[in-house]
Amino acid sequence: MTITDAFLALSARTGRFTYGAPRAYTLAEDGTRLLLLRSTGSEDPVDRLHLLDTATGEERLVADPAALLPGRSGRRDDLPAVERRLRERTRLVAAGIGSYAATADLAVAVFTLDGRLFRTDTTTGSSDELPVAGPAFDPRPDATGQRVAYVTEEAGHGTALYVTPGLDPLSPADGARWGVAEFAAAEELGRARGHWWRPDGGALLAARVDESALPRRHFADPAHPGEAPEDFAYPQAGGPNADVQLWVLGLDGSRTRLHWDADAHPYLCAASWASDHEVLLTVADRLQQNVLLLSADPATGLTRELSRTTDEFWVDDLPGTPARLPGGRLLTAYDTPQARGLALDGKPLDTTGLQIRRVVGRLHGRLLCETGQGDPADQHVHLVDPDGGAPEPLTTGPGVHSALAAADTLLLIAAGPGGIRRTVRRTTRGADGRDGPELPLTDLSAALPYPVRPQFARVTDRELPSAVVYPRDHVPGRRLPVLLDVYGGPGYQAVATEPRRWQLRQWWADQGFAVVTTDNRGTPFVSPDFTRAIFRRFSRAALDDQVDALHALAAHHPDLDLRRVGVRGWSYGGYFAALAVLRRPDVFHAACAGAPPTDFRLYDTAYTERYLGLPQDNPEGYAGDCLLTDAPGLTRPLLLIHGLADDNVHPAHTLLLSQALTAAGRPHAVLPLPGVTHMTPDGMNEQLAQAELAFLRDALG
Fold first, then answer.
1. Mean pLDDT over all residues of the chain?
2. pLDDT band at 88 (very low <50, low <70, confident <90, very high)
3. Under a CB-based contact definition with an 8 Å cutoff, are residues 327 and 362 in contact?
4. Rounded to two decimals, what is the model's pTM?
5. How far apart are the first and last CA of the chain?
6. Range 455-700: architecture per CATH
7. Residues 269-285: b if buried by 16+ CB within 10 A, e if exposed
8. Where are the domains of the chain?
9. Could you tell me which residues come within 8 angstroms of residue 174 by beta carbon, excluding any fewer than 6 positions away?
10. How far apart are CA 158 and CA 175, in angstroms?
């Protein structure tokens, strides 16, 4: 399909306005240098590695894939399968250096290109290719940068952990997956890695993943029937999980397993070395109602409990916690029904008026936190004093602000109505009593074409965050069909003042729609009570809230024509779009449902069971959220879209709903996408927008 629309074509060429923007930042432990990835311009997808001096602002290119591998295609298919899977889990799309790891002083950085391993001396900018035993993945340097650990795939479904120099595996050849994060950890628990160097470089902490009890999912590409199908292990709700162990593998050949009650706490959420003599790990029970921070002795493998966080619903992940601070104090999340906060050794810290979203580090002895304050559409950065005192704001005004810090250096990113600005500065006050100058990071991305001005509001007695976007040439008094552009599921906030996410919505508005977006209960960042309203049932709160918000907005926006309401979404948003026309055809008149999980009994364990519990314990909830039994009631136009290489929401979800609709004699449309994954990269998002527009115009008139 050719992209004929000028905005959509520009969006596709510029990677949705991200090519040329800096990303993947790492500060040296002393704050003097910053590594980042960036391409050469707004239409260049190939990321290169750059080094910035945080005192002078001088930036140098230190690794260029085009120079290291001239003529390299950068195609996804050239990556090792284990890397392709992890990129899906972390939503990473990059044609050059996708990710890297560096020593604490940033003197050495390592990365892979198409399975080949490179080590870069960032001082000289010289790179060497290192010999590997097979296609390499997830390289990590030791403290000196002289040795590099990496993973490669073995025969069958296993992986092995290697250390350079040398071509013998450090891990046993037992058919397990060594050194990688399993599906549940990478997709749902926030842990994307599976091996960690001991600080002195004498051993590695490594995950051993046994997936032999899991069912396998298969993918065949109908467009290429001569190619063999792929398969991988998938933890399906109610079924077995991967057996995950942690081992200390010494370079001297020693092996020690870390022991905890894995039957009671099967999920390994995080792991790290506190010192050469202590490992910290965070584990959770299957329903994620109990999360433990454990201290492990790497010599004996024995563990002891340091802290325990419990919740009758589920323990929502608060990045940066639980953690041990200098001096041994324990930082944990502390939730009330109205707010997310922090506790130190069990005592709540003063975070009045804030919703803590992430603890990103420490600056001058205080906790650097990303926070909500007031309007949940905004995100700010505060310093929270662990010894008492009111939090200090570092950002003001509307926008989504984020931060990173090391020693006395602070990187701030402000994404708001005025655009996106990234600055770094030294915060140690000089003789004049002021911080060092703000140094802007070079941004070569395309300018956003639309100055979008969403009309934000909190609606209904539940104060649902909502926004309306009108066509730029809208004349008040002209009635417009409504397009509900929705996600609505846990873990993602759609209504935020970050400017890039409104570009495509403005395009939809300019096609003749009033575009409405609402965050219903179950989405994050309003309050714990707001998020937990979906406990044991997804569909009810989401549908009620979206319908109520739509009517509340129409009362204040008379140009919204509620006789013509379309709805579109992807993933959970696709689930909601199909749910909307199946159960509320009186409100929703057409839907485009992309990659919808139509039956959560077929979705993964860690996500689904966190909210719905086990299928055998909550059969009514699973049945109530399943769309397949609603098929006979379809009376509205429905377009189902699914990538046939989607390993997150398997295409079986859409095919089963289509099968049920066909059996019930209900007309519908299906758009299959051979070779396309859940991420829809390489302009596919823009191509789908054209197809959805044609469908909705025909359906709504």
1. 95
2. confident
3. no
4. 0.96
5. 24
6. 3-Layer(aba) Sandwich (3.40)
7. bbbebeeeeebbbbbbb
8. 353-440, 455-700
9. 158
10. 5
